Design the sequence.
């Protein structure tokens, strides 16, 4: 019986981590898109922060991080 509870807890943990990863990826995407076309160093720094947050979420979900420059429009 304990094994069943353990498996249920593991499944719940993975589900919650997936939600967190998707939220980080979405937030990073929004930040990256909002600042990627700015010309100031501040805008470029914020776009890079968004990319880092996005990649963190992608890694948590088992996806490969994006490696292209922000703003290039490259697909996965």
Sequence:
């Amino acid at each position: 019986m304990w094994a069943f509870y353990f498996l249920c807890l593991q499944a719940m943990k993975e589900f919650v981590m997936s939600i967190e990863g998707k939220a980080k990826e979405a937030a990073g995407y929004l930040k990256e898109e909002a600042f990627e076309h700015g010309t100031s160093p501040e805008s470029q720094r914020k776009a890079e922060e968004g990319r880092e947050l996005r990649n963190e979420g992608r890694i948590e979900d088992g996806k490969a991080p994006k490696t292209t420059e922000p703003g290039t429009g490259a697909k996965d």
About this structure: The mean pLDDT is 82. Helices lie at 2-35, 41-60. The chain has one domain: 2-60.
